[in-house]
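Late entry, written up from scratch paper. The run itself happened at the end of the previous shift, but nothing got recorded in the book at the time, so transcribing now.
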Amino acid sequence: MTSFLLSDVSTSPSSEPKYVTQKQCVTHLKLLSAFAELRDVVSNNDGLFGLHGTDGHEEGDAQDKYHALVKEKRWAVYVARAVKRYTNWWFRCLPSPEPLPKMADIRRNAYANVVKPEKIVQWHQDILPPLDVLMVWHSHMLNPRKYLEDCIRYGKMCVWGAGFPWELLDQQIDGTTFDYTATGEACRYFESQVGSSWDNLLDPLTTIVQCPNCGTEVIVSWTAGQDVTDVNLPFDNCTGLADKGFRAVCHNCDYLIDHDRLKLAKWRQDVRVVRDQSRPMPGCFYNLRGVPFPVSMSWKEAAFLYPSQLIRVVADDILEFTDPKANQCHSIAAVRDYLRKRVQERRVLQMAHESHFSKVQPTRVEKICIRRMISRYWDNSSPFSLDLLGAVIRQGKFIQQMDRINWLRSPTLHATLNRMIRKYSVFFGIMADNPKEMAVPTLDVDLAWHTHQLSPRQYYNYSVRLTNRPMQFIDHNDKVDELKLTNGFEWTCKTYREVTDGEIYSECVCWFCEAIRYPDLYGHFRSSLLWLSDARKAVDELHRQHDQASKSDSGPHISIHSAVRLQNSEVNRIMRETKALQLLEAYRKSLRRAQKHSRSSKALESAIAAVNSLVLPTSLTTDSVVSQDETSMLSSEEDEVNHKNNHETVDAISNFFDGIEKLVDGLEQLFHDDPHCTDGSLSGQGNCISGTCGSSIAAGNCVSCGNASACGASAGCGGGGAGGCGGGGGGGGGSSGCGVYRNVLLSTQTQLLGYSNEWTPQYL
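Output as recorded:
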């Protein structure tokens, strides 16, 4: 009978690689190609899950948009089903030999050894899961801190220690067709243990959810209600589990079930577990640096356990408040507001700290830990610490980029991988040396980084070894504000050049990388510096390579799969458009220099074509920014062109990052929690995303406490705190409000693009 086998962790230093290898990167590329092929087959399967194209009455852009949305919808439903299958595989197949940790266990010194499992899974081909389950597992592991948390929480450190089965996957994936083949025994084992077909598409079109009110199993459709007559909002009224507007009524008690109530049911289950079994709440398994250190018996040194202690104190009250029968709490936002009030009660704080002498307010670190706990519920009703549907969808952007670059077909693959691994080593050193900065990878660095993370134990050991003062487990946030990502990329390019004495970080000639690179290399007169001269020569050589210049869309530029957009934030919207204008102007300057120094007009024309195709939406003509037919494209005549097309340029700026990310318009219709966006309003759910208040803080609005925000006194993220996300607390009522950015934007528009005084931005 097929089963999982455990083996002792080898103590031999040569038994397994401690760093990412070329072989692993090649296998990873094969796996990503298999994922890309799977997505192509699923999304183009007309009629799959009852999702059809229109009857052809609509034409043009509306029809194209509709077809693109239907493709994305098929894939979204498929991934939702895959997440359910992965969840069953996780609990029914993967072994859990370790006891589930309790709060008392985390206080013991032995807890430090939780990242040193004595036994690990011994992978063999008869226990490998289907490709869709592998895809979800892959995305789960690429959130290393949360994957570690889930493995600790569910006693699966033997799986964490084993990592991805690279050698087996290399054997099972064809190097030409990228077909993933499994043994008959693997199929039988999966189907018998999980209760699903090996092929995702052979599973039923319905699934089961448990009624949060009475516990009855309710059969629901994965998707239902497509409106083929409305090409603009075809899924607006869909009510299936994989739909944004999921609704079902329990046949036993008539309770209305939706996504928010399922998240609330998850919360209630976890509260009962911490109350009855003393098992920690999600988010309470490691310190703010991601390291699962044992905590002292003193509450002052046990901040990451504090949320669990707090919930134990108010468990009965909060279960009463969230009881479906009481009908007074319907969302996690209401839970946040409830906790905000309770943490101001002296008696609650004293009991949570197990002390008669307690401050009125929790400490700053405790507030951050409360926020981290709440973040596990904002967009997530699964038993895991993150929404795996959103993680897979965001990871899909990276997979598509890898598919476009197609390194596997490159004749210089091994040289590319050597350079990539060396570059990743420098990048990791930059992260380790600058824990308060956001280092942003290029696509080649991100591939090596992802590959390393798929060996979690080795990646953890490498991370804590390089950051031993203080020790830190470097995370890989997959939800980062796109503006923060862009600014971080600028900083990374500059820092990489400095630590390598002039080497180029982004070896790409797309318009975005040119715009990022130009101010650093040519913005100031510093040619006397040798490293700067070398960097400029390297860029000039890059431009002389016609093949790269003519394929600007397939270079190893910024990796943007983790980018998300803050919604409902006036400040963020204006900052975003200001940044777009600044980068567009930087690119225009780089084109001026290219025109002056270029030896190849063909290469220059290719660069011009790149900016026309990537920056502007289809509503703009290529003459709106630069013209390939006029050598005077960068002369004073460009001001007339900009003035003539200023309204179209506003559209281009609004869609600036969409051009980078190549997002399909209307994706927000497909998901209850849009994986590409997060709410930026002060009262919104999960309005602060990963990294907005420090590298260790997870997504979710803060539980604000009194006059100080939940993440600090001046620049936190609490709705009722001194400041929201923004410099100086401007977003929450501080001094740096929207008015300042309006002035900045108006000034930038006037100076950079020569707008007339009569023109007024549409959003002012």
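The chain has a mean pLDDT of 77.
(Scratch paper discarded after transcription.)
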